[in-house]
Structures are given as structure tokens and as C-alpha cells.
Write a structure and sequence with these properties.
The protein is α/β, with parallel strands linked by helices and 1489 residues long. 31% of the residues lie in helices and 19% in strands. It contains 42 helices and 59 strands. Strands 19, 20, 25, 41, 44, 46, 48, 49, 50, 51, 52, 58 and 59 form a 13-stranded mixed β-sheet that branches. Strands 21, 24, 26, 28, 29, 30, 31, 32, 38, 39, 40 and 45 form a twelve-stranded mixed β-sheet that branches. Strands 1, 4, 5, 7, 8, 9, 10, 11, 17 and 18 form a ten-stranded mixed β-sheet that branches. Helix 34 (1211-1220) packs across helix 35 (1232-1248). It is globular and about 105 Å long.
Length: 1489
């Protein structure tokens, strides 16, 4: 491509020239210097080397002479676009250009003058192409030697108008930076588009500091708006305010307004330069190569198309339909389709389309390939269908919504012809617009901003800047506004023909008689009739019927006996770690009176069909962790309340589950080739399904099962053997890299007796199903049918649903990935709402029965104003009233509504069939504001299918593969009719009948999570007047018929010890204010407060029947808001302080934000942030005051606004500063060493008698803190580490004889390396600090891998820099041992070894350390950070001190700091299942010396 033209060059034209290099005397280098502000680094006296340009003699020898006459034909015309310069009308300052910074560096600059013209590229299509061509000639843009304005006496204003576009903030930033470089002292931003220009008192001052980082954010800091006041009014304001530089960023309509304003400034005699920067995401501005933001929009559009492709190919008879932006032209749709390459039909506004032909071609595609992907540009809402003709505030015609219309047309057309079809519709409009500019657009924006300033300072006015044939030029505004309409796709062009070749679609132009396709089809006797799916109801067999025994009574509970627990003891430790009590354990120490423990019985094939093969597991000798047996179990985590006599606790049923894992004796013989295994996926997609499928196949192969099939089309496909796909290791090798499922899913339950018959006929012995509640209940029916058919087949369910609605279990896989993607959609809505005037960003989320996805995404995003859940009873009037309140106070709002809210909102509607709750609510809000004549726009986003279709993140990838592996372990051992899941962080088998007995899990509207959501949104009650929710029922009684009661002695063996960790409370030393919690009057319901001491005990568990001795468990105080407070937040002068120490970690800002927000909610007036870690305490100028405003959006940024540092001053000095500044709540974010420092500060404060709560929030990216489930930031770090490993895999697999080597964080332990490796699934060698490694064995293994497969991926944790090699022994400022760089060491050692062995090799080395640490938290970590921070504040206000907060067995608790500080790091146990899983993934041998 040369000057935007695709050309052929002789190869020697480039090979005979020197490589292209950066010209250090050129403009690009100057732009870089302006960005970095770096000085010259050339040695004193040395001149910068000149870059040699193309040698003319070489080019002459390669070419023949020509002339302009040979290029121009008769009739051709060159039109020069002259510009207006204010110096022709007004007195010019005529001063030399001394742009600040450049002259001081003695750098040369090539200035332009008024004679630097660029002409559009001459071109000819062919010899016969002698038509008259028009070539425009434009003035080159750039800095001028002489300036019209004196910068020191200038004032500038910037305004953005119209819709959002990626890069707006980049342009604003560069305008400000360039104006500042010229020396302009007064720069203002106008909020609200042209409307804001008439209110100069509302203009905001823009400085380099205020705009420094805005390019990292989408939208515009100058809230955009549509609509124009009289241009003369704007011109008069410019004159009154003495504005010399007026920059307008917008599209065609905005530029028309700018041209009129320019004319008006001339009329009023005001010396003001009016300069436009052309902005339109549609890329429809004439003459220009492209408009900024377009490339970013295309990149985002491809993501939407990819999601549609995943949905289409992962569902049976499915069309993925995507509507993309393009009001008048189809540039985005066309380029995105060309980039995606897997679209079947693309419809542009420029095309003349016959709807019948379109529908018929869609049907042919679905019949032929089972799916189709269709992309339609929004402008087809005025071609395929006709719009109403109504105009918006910007004067644009309101288009009919072609996306839902086309979806309905497709569904009706297929339905009339008896064809099954589902359509997954995706409209990514506002997610396209709201993202920051990508690298290409960011550079383009900055140059446009610079050139706009250069032109303005030189006195050019009525101009715009842009790129034409790769040259930056200035054009008169009329050159783009007076062209005949916008730039459109030419349907006769090569670009359009490329599009048609890519999609393969036929001509869809209307033809004579093609209306026949819309006629009702003729009914033929042999025509197949579509039969609706039927649910065949029959009683599922429970475990007792399965065993042929009577079920126990389900009428009454079997409460545990009170008193001592035989042979068990409890040791009580105070907040300093001193033992204060040691006695016999009482039942009341663990559970409340009236509680019971029940074992959920599990079906096993041996109970009905005999003992089976009874063969030894082929895994014997390979597992260090040993095998489980039928007596391996785990009990739900228990709680007990003390010290709240006014609280009556009801007894609770705790369930014992069978532990999931390998058994040493198998029911099935893996070597029996007559049997096979089958996998099926049903229902909606969920991230990670392919990961689970892959792991099932791999795990079955490890056992020796050779025949594994995947069924296409859900349960329906079981009866159609041609839909069975054999799954080999080669077929599933890389499927985890893709979203969706390779087994086309389908909803619906056919007659499962037919499915069971098909499974029996095929000799299926292991049956695995992935899906939600409906799928899993279908598995239960298949299990029953197989039992009646007398066929022994293990049926296993794996929970895959983004709704997370299954009872008892921690979560379903795919949910966390969905939360992160949903959070990103909410962020897009937030950008739209805050960057458009009078705007609501509205998001509809999945959740037909419950609101977990909406709730947790809201908690992760932290910037939602209204969140509506299906569990809520909702008054529409109250919602609309609150929308009005928000718009009148904030000027914007973000609303999240779950799909299932239709149950409440549509209750009083006569005909709600087919209504979409999201678009319905949008229309109701718009109607209310229109009725009250209040301005409003609603930007509506429905990310349902983009959320479901992505591949799993690291957390879900590991979770899904772990569940799949345990499903195979259970199936081979003959366990059946179970769901594999996690309960209190333990992998267990849960009877599927639990799902038929218990309702789906719902958000508890009287619980803490809902209270957290209300605190986050600040929304009022939306329940109708007089409505109240019924009290929660203990639904565990529903499972008594599936379980048997246990005694405490059945769970706790003699010798069991409980260590109770008490927390120090300031009320033990100081007089408590004993005030009622002020949160009770805001968002926290009375039942949400913790009253008394609620003790949480670690999960009781057992490994096997051979384990006869007791275990040791720990017990901690439940974290959360207390009813009564130690501190009175209203006390004058009381302050709080927050400090971060040690290395960076994702989520630091999220914790800081939530600490500050919760302190303000309690009523604390002054909150300080300490800059520079502990050292900042003794530098009191490093203290900054945190406010609700300056912490509002910090969670969207990586790092810490409180600059972290290592090193400790004397903690006695810290205590004195804290006392002098009257700090009463002191929060410390850090790892083990930081917490040890916090404990020292706590002790020093105690010595000087200062009443201050010291609370830690444990932070370490390495996840090495003892006891806790995990530390915040770890999950995000694993997701980033996974990206690095995936990059290494691409390098190794696409370069000959290549190793991708990745070094990951992990100073003392290998949790990041292990987790990321398990998620990636394609690592060949992983090295952890916990491993004892022989370098010789390692090198031999690497050489062997390279000989066999000629590629490898190696992951090494940084801590191996103290095991494989030894560090220097030095320490850093934080006292940590300095490690040798094991990554570069291994690279060199492997290279030497392979060279000696004669093995060709290249190594691609990746060290993502600082990229892993510096990103902002993903959704999981964001929620976790917020919860930890809230718990920390709750504890501090209640007077607890010397504590930290964390999650233990999925319960938020408070721990005394001594419980985790200086206890050593939590390391990977080389005898654990995690490590075994890791070795099974990499297949590496032992490297032990």
C-alpha cells in the first residue's frame, strides 16, 4: 500500500534500498519528543545522524522517466482548496514560533509555510479510463514559522458534539498539551456540546495535569450533546469571553455548525480561529482517508461477530445476528466482516436488498451447514424497512431498529415452513463507542490534535484537519460539509467485491417474482412436521429406591445432642496469640442448639448391579496424595453464636457430602473395549464448556478408556447415532482456546427412555452432561430410565450455567468469566451515561430466575445507580421516580435490569407475551421524561450472547477442568446420579435429586450480599407501598428424604482439636461509645447485622476410612457489620488513615475506594491516604485527603493512588504520628511483612494508650498467605499470566524448533505458575519453587521434547531463582531476598545444551511480571476487594484491632494478625491433588535429583 493505494512493486525496489528507519530530524521523532518531554540524549557536540533516504540513482535505474502530462488526461482537473487566514482581515501578531520545550533542546524543526501543497494521488484504472478525474490540492498541516496569535495573550475553548467515539479524550488531551507547549495560559472545556457554549460560567479549566491520563478512558470528559443554539449567540460569547482559539470535535452536522459560527465571528469582527477535528465512528466524511475512532470500532465489532459465530456454531439450527453502526454507510460492517472472515450474509445501507431472497438464503445456509452468521448495518432500518421520519436533537432521522425486526422476520419465516431456528441477536453499538482508542487511533488522534493547534496558532480559520492519501492536511470546512452526502461504500468497488467473496452470498437484489418466498408454504403429505419438544414426566428414582431399602423419615429433624463432644478439645487464643483457655469441646462451641448434621446419600452402581469389575486403578503408583474411598467426606462449614441473649437462633441442617476424587478400586474395567463414554452439552452456552470437554477426554484416556464420543444437539442427539462425534486427543487438543462448545448444544428434554435405550444399545458406560438445572434434571431422568432398562452406566452432571442458580454449591463454572464480561458492558454504559448530556446507560443481563449475575456484576463495577433483580417486587412508578431524581441531581444514571424482572414488572400488563423487559423498561423511562418534557437519551446494551460465548478465564478454566476430572474419577468408580461441584471450597459429589427437591438458589433480599448491593447503588426501596418480604425459610428440611442423620461423634473423631482465634477489641481497654450502627437507617436491614460473636469453624473433612485420628481445625469470628459500634463516627476531629505497602497488586485501588466509601457511609468526616507506604507516615506532607469524588473511579485503574513503597521506619514513631493526628481507624494493605509491621504498630499504640483500631487487608499477588482461601489480585494475575502462556504457545507452535519460555511471579511459592498452567493446558514443563529440581534432568527432558515434537512451552516461577540457581544473598528495601533471574539463566542453559546435542533451537522468552501486577482487578477480584474493605471498616468501627480480614472456606472472617503474620508462606504441597493435576497436565517426569 502506497499513499492508500494497493500497488505492485518489483522486489528489487525494496531490497536494493536500506531499511526504513526513524528520521531523528523528522516530524515523527519530534512528535515523540513532545509526548515524552525527554531532553536530547546525544553526546555533547554531536549532531544527530541523518537518515539516508532513497538513493535517487537506484530508483532511476529501476524506473522510466515520466511527466505530469503522462499522468493527466484531457478533462482531468486539479482543484486547489484555499483556506481563510485571519491575517487577511485582522492585525497579525506575526511573532516567531517558539513552541515551548523544543527550542530549548536545540532540536531542528522543519516549519511549513503557505505554499506547501499536497495533491491527491494521480491514478488511472486502465488505458481506456479517460474520464475526467478531479484531484484536490490541499495545504499541508503542521507548525508554521510565524504565528498570527500571541500565545501568551490567548484563550482557547474545546467542545465535543454528537455521539461518542473512541479517541475523543485523546484529541482533547493533545489539544491541551499542544496549546500549553505554545504557551497558551487559559484553556477551557465546554460541557454539553454547542448548548454549553452559551453558558461560559460552566466551562471547566483544562490543564496538563487534569488531562494527563484521560486518553486511557473511553468517552469524553466534556459531556457531549446534540442540538444547536443560534450560531450568532455562540460567536458573541466567543467575542465576549475573548476566545482566540475555538476547537470543535464532531461529525458532519457539528462541522456545519462550526462553519456557521466561523462566518458569524467574521460578521461580529472577532479575531478567532475556528478549527474542526472530524469525528465520526461511521467513517463517512468525504475526502479523508478515515476518521478517528473508526479502526477501534472495527476491532470491537469483530469481537461481536466472533461471539455471534460461537453462538451460531455451538447451537443447533442457529443464526447469529449482529447489528452494527452505520447510519448512512456500511464501512464498519464491511471492514469487520472482512476481518472476521466467517460471516455468511452482510447487509449494508448501500445495497438494494430483497427481503424474500435474504430469508431464503438464510434458510438454505441453516439447512446446509446448520448455522449462519448475518451482519446488518443500522442504516438498513431506512432501506429494508422505512423509518418514521422523526428527527433526533441533532437533526438526524430516527431509524427503525432493523436488528430485532430482522430477527422476527427470520423466526416467522422458518416457523411457517416447519424449520427449527434460534436467533442470537447481538447489538454492540454502545460497547463499540465507549472504549478508549486503540494504538492506531490514539496516534492518529494525537496528531490531529497537534495539527489543529498548529493551524489555529497560524491564524487559519474555518478549517478542519485530516489525512488524505497519507498526508496530514488542512481543508476548508465546506470541503466536507458541501459534498453530496456522506462517503458511502461503492457497490461496484473492489472493497465490496472482496466482501461478497468473503461471505459467498449471492446477489440479493430484488428480481421479478421473488415475492413468492413470502407466500405461505404449500402443505404436502410427505412434508416433515415440526414437533414441539415434550417433557416426559415420570418419577425419578431416589437413592433409597435405588438401593432397595426404605427411606428414612423426612418429617422431623434429628438435632445433635448437647454437651461435650467425646474426646475433642478447644483451645482459645487471645488477640495477641496467648492461650487463655483449653477445655473439652462442647457442641454449642460449633453449632447453635437444634442443629443437625445429615449425610446426603449417593447412588453407586454396585448397590444395584453388583460389584462390577473391581479392578485396581491404573493411577496407582502415580498419585502421591493417595486415594479416597466411600468414607471420604466433607461437611458444610458450621457457625455458632455466643453473647447475644436477645437473639433466638434456629437450628440449621448441615450436610455431609461425599468427597470427589480418585478411588483405588474401579467399577469399570478401562481396558474393556466393548464399552464407551459419551459427553453431551445442553441448554445455553457457558464459558468453559470446551475446557471441561477436553478434560473429560484426557482424564478418560489417562484411565485407559479409548472410545469417547461427543453428542451433537443436546439430549435430542442421543437418539441419532450419526450425530455422535468421536473425540480423540487430537480433536480436543486446542478446543479450550475457543468459546462455546464443539458439541452443538440444544435446549429441551425429549423422552429420556429413548435416550437411555440408545445409550444401552451403544454400550455406553460413562455418561457426562454439562449444563444448568434443566440439563442436570434430565441426567437424573436418564439415570432412572437406565436403571429400569437394567443397564449399568454412570451418569455424571457438571454444572455449567452463567446464572449460578444451583442450590448448596459455591458456584457454577462460567459464572466468573460472565461477571467480568458483564462488568465490562456496565463500564461501557457508564461511559455513555457520563459522557452524554442527560443520559441513562441501561443494561439488560441474563437471569430469568435469579439475579446473581446482575448483583455481582454491579458489585464489581461499583458505578451502577439502579439494579433490579428478579427476586425483587418492583413498583415501576418508584423506579421512574428515582430515575428522575438521579437525573436532576447527578445528570446521568446507570441502570441494570435482569431478564427475570419481567415477572414483577409485567404483572399488571394484559398482554406481555414477547415483550423484552429491557427495551420495555427503556421505553417506559423515555415516555415518563417525554411526558414531563425533560431531556433524556437512553443508551441500551444487551450483552447476553457476548457474555456467554467467550472462552473461560483462568479461574473458570481451572474450575471447569477440575470438575471434569472429578466427574471421570467418580464415573470410573461407579458413582452415579451426582453433580460434581464445590461446597465451602471442597470438591464433592452431590446427589442430583437435590435439584428436584430444592428450588433454585436466589439472592437473599434480607442477606448481606443484597445489602452490599444497596450500599453500592444507593438506591431506595422499590417495593410497592405496604409490601414486605416473607421471612426466609430453612429449605434444608426438603432434603431429609435424601439423607440420614449423623451424630457429632460421627464427624469429629477423638483427638480433634479446635483452635479458637479471638480478636482484640478496644472496649477491653477503653470505654466503648456503644452507639447504634448508623447504617441501619440507610441500606442495611436489621437482620443483616451480626449480633454477638458468631464463630465460623473450618470445614470438617475426612480422607478415608483409614483416617481414625482427629484433625485440627481453626475457628474465627464472622466478619460483617455489627449492630453496636465502639466508635461514635460523629465524634469531632476523628480521622481514619489508609496505607499500602510492598509491591503492586491488582485491586489495590478497589480496596482503597471501598474503605473510603464505607468510612464516609458510617459518618467519618476525614480520611487520609498515606503516600509512600510506612515511610510516608513520618513525612506528613505525603498525606492526602480522600474524598468521595477523588476515589469514585479509581477502581477502574491499576496500581495504587497511594504510591506504594517498601521499608519500615520505627513503629513507635508511626504510633506517635497516628496519635497526634487523632487517627482512630488505621487500615494497612499488604502482605506478610506489612502485616507484621501492622502488628508492631498496634502494640506500640497500646503502649502509649492511643485508642485506634488497626486493621489489615491481606494483599499478595503470590497467594501465599496462610489459612486464607486466597488473597485479592491473585485471580486477575492468573488471567494475565494465562495470556502470556498463550502467547508463548503461539510462538512455539508457529516457529520452527521453538521454545516459548515464560517466567511468572512467585517468590516463595508457585501458585500463579501452577494455576495459569492448569488453565492454559498446553504447557510441557512447569517449574515451581517448591520442587527439588536437577538441572541435568530438566535439560534432558527439554531436549527429548524438542526431538519428539519440535516445540515446547516452559513456565518457571521466579522463586526458582533461589533453587535451581542461587541468588546473591542481598536483600531489597522490604527485607526480601534478592533472587537470581532464573528466566534468562534457563534460556542460556537450554540453548547451550541443545546446541551441544545438535538440536536446532530458538527460544522466545516472555517475562510479564509488571504487566501481571499493574492491571486493574477483574470482576472476581473487584467484588472480593470491595467485600474485604467493607468487612475491614465494619470491624474497625466495632472496635476490633490488631486484626485482618479474609475468606476462609468461603466465609468472610476476622483473624488476629498474629494468625497469619510471620507464619511462613503457604506453598503448594507436592503430595496434593493440585500438584498431581499439574503433572498430569504437563506430563513431565520427576526432576528430583
Amino acid at each position: 500500500k502506497v499513499h492508500e493505494r494497493y500497488v505492485y512493486l518489483p522486489i528489487h525496489a525494496i531490497t536494493m534500498q536500506k531499511g526504513r528507519r526513524v528520521d531523528v530530524n523528522g516530524r515523527w521523532f519530534m512528535r515523540m519528543l513532545e509526548c515524552t518531554r525527554q531532553p536530547g540524549f546525544s553526546p555533547d557536540g554531536a549532531e544527530a545522524a541523518r537518515v539516508e533516504k532513497t538513493d535517487p540513482k537506484i530508483m532511476e535505474s529501476l524506473s522510466s522517466p515520466g511527466s505530469v502530462n503522462l499522468m493527466l488526461e484531457p478533462g482531468d482537473e486539479v482543484k486547489r482548496l484555499e483556506l481563510v487566514n485571519l491575517s487577511t482581515t485582522f492585525q497579525s501578531a506575526n511573532i516567531s514560533n517558539e513552541c515551548q520545550g523544543l527550542e530549548a533542546r536545540e532540536l531542528k524543526r522543519d516549519f511549513l509555510d503557505g505554499s506547501d501543497w499536497a495533491t491527491k494521488t494521480f491514478m488511472r484504472m486502465n488505458k481506456r479510463d479517460d474520464r475526467g478525474h478531479v484531484y484536490y490540492q490541499m495545504l499541508l498541516s503542521g507548525p508554521r514559522r510565524q504565528l498570527h496569535f500571541n500565545p501568551a495573550l490567548s484563550k482557547a475553548v474545546i467542545v465535543t458534539c454528537g455521539g461518542l467515539c473512541p479517541g475523543l479524550n485523546s484529541v482533547i488531551r493533545e489539544l491541551v498539551m499542544s496549546l500549553t507547549a505554545y504557551g497558551v495560559p487559559n484553556i477551557f472545556g465546554c460541557k454539553g456540546g454547542y448548548k454549553g457554549m452559551t453558558e461560559p460560567e460552566k466551562w471547566i479549566t483544562l490543564t496538563p495535569e487534569s488531562v494527563n491520563d484521560i486518553h486511557n478512558h473511553g468517552g469524553t470528559i466534556l459531556v457531549s450533546d446534540r442540538g444547536n443554539p443560534p450560531c450568532m449567540d455562540v460567536a458573541k460569547v466567543l467575542k465576549e469571553q475573548n476566545v482566540q482559539h475555538y476547537f470543535v470535535i464532531g461529525g458532519d452536522g457539528t462541522h456545519r455548525g462550526a462553519m456557521e459560527i466561523f462566518k458569524c465571528t467574521q460578521e461580529v469582527g472577532h479575531n478567532c480561529s475556528v478549527v474542526g477535528v472530524p469525528k465520526t465512528i461511521d467513517n463517512d466524511i468525504p475526502i479523508l482517508d478515515r476518521s478517528f475512532g473508526y479502526k477501534t470500532a472495527c476491532t470491537e465489532a469483530v469481537k461481536a461477530i466472533n461471539s455471534a459465530f460461537v453462538e451460531a456454531t455451538s447451537n443447533t439450527n442457529c443464526i447469529g445476528l449482529v447489528k452494527l453502526m452505520g447510519r448512512h454507510c456500511g464501512w464498519i460492517a464491511m471492514e469487520a466482516v472482512l476481518a472476521a472472515r466467517h460471516v455468511d450474509i452482510c447487509i449494508l445501507p448501500e445495497m438494494n436488498v430483497s427481503l424474500p431472497k435474504l430469508l431464503m438464503h438464510g434458510m438454505e445456509l441453516v439447512k446446509k451447514q446448520g448455522h449462519a452468521v448475518i451482519v446488518v448495518a443500522e442504516g438498513c432500518g431506512d432501506t429494508l424497512i422505512k423509518s418514521s421520519g422523526e428527527k433526533d436533537a441533532g437533526g438526524n432521522t430516527k431509524l427503525a431498529d432493523v436488528g430485532p425486526w430482522l430477527q422476527n422476520q427470520l423466526l416467522e419465516f422458518f416457523n411457517e415452513r416447519g424449520q427449527d431456528l434460534t436467533v442470537k441477536f447481538i447489538d454492540p453499538t454502545y460497547t463499540l463507542r465507549a472504549v478508549p482508542a486503540n494504538a492506531n487511533d490514539s496516534v492518529y488522534c494525537s496528531i490531529l490534535g497537534q495539527h489543529a493547534v498548529h493551524g489555529s496558532m497560524a491564524g487559519y480559520s474555518g478549517i478542519t484537519v485530516g489525512k488524505v492519501d497519507e498526508r496530514y492536511v488542512m481543508l476548508p470546512i465546506h470541503a466536507i460539509t458541501k459534498m453530496e452526502g456522506p462517503r458511502r461504500v461503492n457497490v461496484l468497488s473492489r472493497d465490496f467485491h472482496r466482501l461478497m467473496n468473503t461471505t459467498g452470498q449471492p446477489s440479493l437484489e430484488p428480481g421479478q417474482g421473488d415475492d413468492w418466498a413470502l407466500l405461505p408454504p404449500v402443505e404436502l403429505e410427505h412434508q416433515m412436521k415440526r414437533v414441539a419438544s415434550r417433557t416426559h414426566e415420570y418419577t425419578e428414582m431416589d437413592v433409597f429406591e435405588w438401593r432397595g431399602v426404605d427411606a428414612p423419615s423426612a418429617d422431623a429433624p434429628a438435632p445433635l445432642s448437647t454437651g461435650e463432644v467425646n474426646g475433642a478439645a478447644i483451645e482459645v487464643l487471645n488477640g495477641y496469640g496467648d492461650a487463655v483457655d483449653d477445655r473439652a469441646l462442647q457442641t454449642a462451641d460449633i453449632v447453635n442448639e437444634g442443629s443437625e448434621i445429615r449425610r446426603l446419600e449417593v447412588m453407586q452402581l454396585k448397590d444395584r448391579f453388583g460389584l462390577g469389575a473391581q479392578v485396581q486403578s491404573p493411577l496407582q503408583g502415580k498419585l502421591r496424595s493417595g486415594f479416597l474411598d466411600d468414607d471420604a467426606w466433607a461437611v458444610e462449614a458450621m457457625t455458632a453464636r455466643e453473647g447475644a441473649e436477645d437473639v433466638v437462633d434456629k437450628g440449621h441442617s448441615y450436610f455431609q457430602f461425599m468427597r470427589a476424587g480418585p478411588r483405588d478400586t474401579l467399577y469399570f474395567d478401562p481396558s474393556d473395549t466393548s464399552g464407551c463414554a459419551v459427553i453431551v452439552t445442553c441448554g445455553g452456552l457457558s464459558p468453559g464448556e470446551n475446557t471441561a470437554i477436553r478434560e473429560i477426554v484426557h482424564s478418560l484416556r489417562r484411565y485407559g478408556v479409548q472410545r469417547v464420543f461427543g453428542v451433537m444437539g443436546g439430549f435430542h442427539g442421543i437418539m441419532e447415532r450419526e450425530k455422535w462425534l468421536e473425540l480423540t486427543l487430537e480433536v480436543v487438543q486446542d478446543i479450550h482456546q475457543k468459546g462455546g462448545t464443539i458439541l452443538k448444544t440444544r435446549r429441551g428434554n425429549p423422552d429420556h427412555r429413548e435416550g437411555a435405550a440408545a445409550l444401552k444399545a451403544a454400550g455406553v458406560r460413562q455418561f457426562f452432561a454439562l449444563g444448568g438445572e434443566g440439563t442436570l434434571l434430565g441426567v437424573l431422568q436418564i439415570q432412572t430410565a437406565l436403571a429400569h432398562a437394567n443397564h449399568s452406566c454412570s451418569c455424571m452432571g457438571i454444572p455449567a450455567t452463567i446464572n449460578n442458580d444451583l442450590p448448596l454449591i459455591d458456584r457454577t463454572f462460567g459464572f466468573d468469566t460472565a461477571c467480568t464480561l458483564t462488568r465490562d458492558s456496565i463500564m461501557a454504559a457508564y461511559v455513555e451515561a457520563t459522557c452524554n448530556a442527560n443520559c441513562i446507560g441501561m443494561i439488560k443481563l441474563a437471569g430469568s430466575q435469579n439475579g446473581f449475575l446482575a448483583l455481582e456484576a454491579t458489585l464489581a463495577s461499583r458505578n451502577v445507580d439502579i439494579c433490579l433483580l428478579p427476586e425483587m417486587e418492583i413498583s415501576l412508578e418508584k423506579v421512574l421516580d428515582h430515575c428522575e431524581t438521579l437525573m436532576s441531581t447527578k445528570g446521568y444514571a446507570v441502570v441494570v435490569v435482569a431478564n427475570g424482572c419481567s415477572t414483577s414488572l409485567f404483572k399488571d400488563l394484559d398482554d406481555a407475551e414477547g415483550l423484552d423487559v429491557g427495551t420495555w423498561l427503556r421505553d417506559q423511562v423515555l415516555a415518563r421524561f417525554k411526558q414531563k418534557q425533560k431531556p433524556l437519551t437512553v443508551k441500551y446494551i444487551d450483552p447476553t450472547y457476548t457474555v456467554r460465548s467467550e472462552k473461560a478465564d483462568a479461574l473458570d478454566a481451572v474450575y471447569g477442568s477440575t470438575l471434569a476430572e472429578h466427574a471421570v474419577h467418580g464415573a470410573m468408580a461407579g458413582i452415579t446420579g451426582v453433580l460434581v461441584a464445590k461446597v465451602n471450597e471442597r470438591n464433592v459429589y452431590m446427589p442430583l435429586q437435590v435439584l428436584s427437591k430444592m428450588p433454585r438458589r436466589n439472592v437473599d433480599l434480607q442477606g448481606r450480599w443484597f445489602a452490599r448491593m444497596l450500599f453500592t447503588t444507593g438506591q431506595p426501596s422499590f417495593e410497592p407501598e405496604g409490601f414486605s418480604y416473607p421471612p426466609n425459610e430453612d429449605r434444608s428440611s426438603l432434603l431429609r428424604g435424601l439423607s440420614t442423620p449423623l451424630a457429632m461423634e460421627d464427624v469429629l473423631r477423638p483427638g480433634t482439636e479446635i483452635k479458637r482465634h479471638q480478636c482484640a477489641n478496644l472496649s477491653d481497654t477503653f470505654t466503648s461509645k456503644n452507639v447504634e450502627n448508623p447504617l441501619s437507617s440507610t441500606v442495611y436491614a436489621a437482620g443483616s447485622f451480626i449480633r454477638g460473636d458468631v464463630w465460623c469453624t473450618q470445614t470438617f473433612q475426612r480422607h478415608s476410612a483409614e483416617e481414625t485420628s482427629g484433625r485440627s481445625y481453626m475457628q474465627f469470628l464472622r466478619a460483617g457489620a455489627r449492630q453496636m459500634l465502639h466508635f461514635d463516627p460523629r465524634e469531632p476531629g476523628m480521622c481514619a488513615a489508609i496505607v499500602t505497602c510492598g509491591g503492586l497488586c491488582p485491586g489495590l485501588n478497589a480496596v482503597i475506594r471501598e474503605l473510603a466509601k464505607m468510612l464516609f457511609a458510617y459518618g467519618v468526616k476525614t480520611v487520609y491516604g498515606i503516600i509512600g507506604g510506612y515511610l510516608g507516615f513520618i513525612r506528613e506532607d505525603e498525606w492526602i485527603q480522600l474524598t468521595p469524588e477523588n476515589v469514585q473511579d479509581i477502581h477502574m485503574q491499576g496500581g495504587s493512588i497511594l504510591v506504594s513503597d517498601r521499608g519500615n521506619p520505627p513503629h513507635s514513631e508511626i504510633a506517635k504520628v497516628v496519635q497526634r493526628r487523632n487517627i482512630r481507624q488505621y487500615f494497612v494493605l499488604g502482605g506478610d511483612g506489612t502485616h507484621a509491621g501492622a502488628m508492631a504498630s498496634f502494640i506500640e499504640m497500646t503502649k502509649i494508650g492511643h485508642e485506634c483500631a488497626v486493621v489489615g487487608v491481606p494483599k499478595t499477588i503470590d497467594n501465599d498467605i496462610q489459612i486464607l482461601d486466597r488473597s485479592f489480585g491473585f485471580e486477575t494475575a492468573c488471567a494475565e499470566a494465562l495470556r502470556a502462556i498463550d502467547s508463548a504457545y503461539v510462538e512455539s507452535s508457529t516457529n520452527a524448533n521453538c521454545i516459548g519460555l515464560v517466567k511468572l511471579m512467585g517468590r516463595h511459592c508457585g501458585w500463579i505458575a501452577a494455576t495459569a498452567t492448569l488453565a492454559a493446558r498446553h504447557v510441557d514443563v512447569v517449574l515451581l519453587p517448591e520442587m527439588n529440581i536437577s538441572l541435568d534432568k530438566l535439560l534432558a527432558q527439554v531436549a527429548d521434547i524438542m526431538r519428539r515434537q519440535r516445540r515446547a512451552v516452559i513456565v518457571v516461577a521466579e522463586g526458582c531463582g533461589d533453587t535451581i540457581i542461587q541468588g546473591s544473598g542481598g536483600t531489597d528495601a522490604g527485607g526480601n531476598k534478592q533472587l537470581a533471574d532464573v528466566g534468562t539463566f534457563l534460556k542460556d542453559e537450554i540453548t547451550k545444551h541443545c546446541k551441544t546435542a545438535g538440536i536446532p533451537l530458538t527460544i522466545k522468552y516472555i517475562d510479564p511480571t509488571y504487566m501481571v501486577r499493574s492491571v486493574h482487578a477483574n470482576a472476581y477480584d473487584s467484588r472480593y476487594c470491595a467485600s474485604l474493605a467493607q468487612c475491614a471498616v465494619h470491624g474497625a468501627m466495632a472496635g476490633y484491632t490488631g486484626i485482618t480480614v479474609g475468606k476462609v472456606d468461603d466465609r468472610y472472617v476476622m483473624l488476629p494478625i498474629h494468625a497469619i503474620a510471620e507464619k511462613g508462606q503457604r506453598k503448594i504441597d507436592l503430595r496434593s491433588r493440585v500438584f498431581e493435576r499439574l503433572m498430569a497436565t504437563t506430563k513431565q517426569p520427576s526432576f528430583d535429583p
